[in-house]
Amino acid sequence: MAIGRRDGDGIEVEGLVREFKNGPRAVDAIDLRVEAGEIYGFLGPNGAGKSTTVLMLTTLLPPTAGTARVAGYDIVSDGPLVRSSIGAALQEAALDPLLSASEHMRLQTALHGLPKAERVERSRELLERVGLSQAADRRVGGYSGGMKRRLDLALALVHRPQILFLDEPTTGLDIQSRTALWDEVARLATEDGVTVFLTTQYLEEADALAGRVGIIDHGHIVAEGTPAELKAEIGRPTVEATPREPGELGRLAAVLERFGPSAGASPRGAAARLEGGEAQLAEVVRALDSEGIAIERLQLHAPSLDDVFLAKTGRSLEGAEDDEEAEPEAEAVSAA
Amino acid sequence: MNGGLRVQVGQLARRSILRTLRQPAQIVPALIFPLFLLAVNSGGLKDATNLPGFPTDSYLTFALAVPFMQGALFSVMNAGTDLARDIETGFLNRLALTPLRGAALLSGLLAGAVVLGLVQAVTYLTVGLIAGAELAAGVGGALVIVALSVLITVGFGSIGLFAALRTGSGEAVQSLFPVFFVFLFLSSMALPLELLQTDWFHAIASVNPVSYLLQAFRSLLIEGWNAADLALGFGIAAVVLAVGMVAASGALKTRLVRT
């Protein structure tokens, strides 16, 4: 039954499940709520269930169980109404390399039913907004990754969606392109009031953009809150040290482990979460000195979202994807 | 067709045509390969015209029907691989997020096949006539040949769309090409049905629809106007198109699992 949309509705998810044939539950009874106008970061390694969640919330994949309302509409019974309220830039920038940006915009504006007179103006406005005016008539096959992502974003915005889904929008981009896209996403939320559901495997992306973050692992949401809340929950900083002599790395790690569990570090260094907080730093230095280990570099890191992930799952986010299987998205879109 | 559907079909057709025109690798082989085979066959098999009962003394005229069929087979590959690529790259998901109707998608995608079919038919006919083939049905016959060729091309193209939607794989679609070529070889491609002496081959060619599609072209090239042959040819082409579109529509519903 279609239910009327209420202004300002965001995303409400209850017990959402997706099972694939002969596979595990890609999404296992997740609950979440995204307020209107909020940027919600959905953080997790490859295969955690992020993209499957997005496919369900964008109506491209029916859930196995559970309910979700997007912009006030049920994702199962009100699919067309959900789609009219959302824009989406899915995991790969799905563009036609033989068409230009203008031709993409022309197609997208027409398919969304914009009046003919409005199509050209809306296309021009969006291409300018994402900085592609100069390249508008070039075929997309020659675009850089950043340009493709920006065009992808522009295409998602042609019908002025209330909610925007961005599935790993900056994966594979250089830092300059990534920052430019972050700025644009932030502007969409703050100036245009667009609700943004952003999946990412980059901690700094969630940290920089998201008002609230949900961390998903093996289909479960393992933590949720503002980045500050999540870090405060962990509360312990990490000390990372690099020995002057590479052969001392093992001894160095052993010393650090006296102060807390090991944490992710650069390949040449070792790190530990300080159970006693920053005050233990002086003790760490004294311990290393008394062991006669010469230090090339010593750093104190404030708690990060990776620390949160580590605390909640027992694994570091940076390395977690190596343990994961890819999400069965091919099956998702071809599910019979 | 209402306004919204017309716009959707028009825009997708425009994209399909642009894609076809911007891929010389789709157009050139579809033009060159059948003409090359035509040259080889009409040179190597010309003595077949001496067989009693052979309908013409020009093997080139007899063989000119074949490129229209070969060209249509290329449309299976082209239409199918284009759609398979859209599935593989996620472009179909982009389209699925718009209010796009399935009928518009399929019709629009076949527009590229129409253009390719037109270019192919006009080229084959022009080259054939320049090389000395006859056209008994005259200018009107030429128009009917082009129309039939386009209809067959679109019909075969719809099978390509079905294959793409079922498999989601460009490689799988391309693997259909040899299968279709077997159908062509097991037909009256080289000799009229009546002159096929090998029993099993005659039996297969007699039930192979390709034989009757070829005969429709040949009737216009060799005899003039033969209503029965034309009706059979257009009828078979229409059935292929109808079956292909129904199958593709069903496969599209399965592929687009949007709620």
Relevant terms:
heterodimer; A: 336 residues; alpha/beta; six-stranded mixed beta sheet; elongated; disordered N terminus; B: 259 residues; mainly alpha; 12 helices; 78% helix
Give the C-alpha Rg of chain B: 19 Å
Q: With helices defined by DSSP (H or I, 4 residues minimum), what is the helix count of chain B? A: 12
Mean pLDDT reading of chain B = 91
> So what's the oligomer here?
heterodimer
Rounded to an integer in angstroms, the radius of gyration calculated over CA atoms of chain A is 23 Å
Q: How large is the share of residues in beta strands of chain A?
A: 15-25%
SSE string of chain A, helices as H and strands as E: EEEHEEHEHHHEHEHEEHEHEEHEHHH
Query: How far do the termini of chain B sit from each other?
Result: 24 Å
Biggest protein-protein contact in the assembly = A-B, 39 and 32 residues
Class by alpha and beta content of chain A: alpha/beta
Through-space gap between termini of chain A = 24 Å
Tell the overall outline of chain B: elongated
Mean pLDDT score of chain A, rounded? 85
Order of helices and strands of chain B: HHHHHHHHHHHH
Number of helices of chain A: 13
Flag low-confidence runs of chain A: 1-7, 328-336
Strand segment tally of chain A: 14
Strand order of the largest sheet of chain A: 6-7-8-3-9-10
Helix content of chain A: 25-40%
Structural class of chain B: mainly alpha
Helicity of chain B, as a percent range: over 70%
Quick description:
With 336 residues, chain A is of the alpha/beta class. Chain A is 37% helix and 23% strand.
Describe the structure.
The complex is a heterodimer of chains A (336) and B (259). Chain A contains 13 helices and 14 strands. With 336 residues, chain A is of the alpha/beta class. Chain A has a six-stranded mixed sheet, sandwiched between helices. In chain A, strands 2-1-4-5 form a four-stranded antiparallel sheet, covered by helices on one side. A four-stranded antiparallel sheet of chain A has the order 12-13-11-14, covered by helices on one side. In chain A, helix 8 (227-234) crosses helix 11 (305-313). The longest helix of chain A has 18 residues, at 175-192. The model of chain A is unreliable at 1-7 and 328-336 (pLDDT under 50). Chain B is an all-alpha fold. In chain B, helix 2 (24-44) crosses helix 6 (102-130), helix 4 (65-89) packs antiparallel against helix 6 and helix 7 packs parallel to helix 12 (227-255). Chain B starts with a helix and ends with a helix. Chains A and B meet through helix 2, strand 6, helix 3 and helix 13 of A and helix 1, helix 4 and helix 5 of B.
